[in-house]
Amino acid sequence: MTTTERRKAAAGRVREAEELVARLRGGFAGVGVVLPSLRIDPVSFAGDEPVALVDLGRCNLDTALRLTQVLEGTRIGHDG
User: Fold this and answer.
1) pTM of the predicted model as reported, rounded to 2 decimal places
2) What are the structural domain ranges in the chain?
3) Which of 11, 31, 52, 53 could form a disulfide with 17 if both were Cys (CB 3.0 to 4.6 A apart)?
4) Model pLDDT for residues 36-52, shown as the tens digit of each residue
């Protein structure tokens, strides 16, 4: 693979990662969860064969609780 082909492939992975981060952010927002550190890990693009890693980041305890409730299928503030 030529340098130009590698750069194009890396650019495609960056675009895909950006789109996925946007989808994750929107999906989380739709269920009331905000992950303030959600981003593409910039270090994952270093090197000759970059890989796109999504960094879900850190969150406070309230956000962690909300996320676990969403994953468990419960809702805050609703009966049953």
Assistant:
1) 0.75
2) 3-72
3) 52
4) 999 999 888 777 677 88
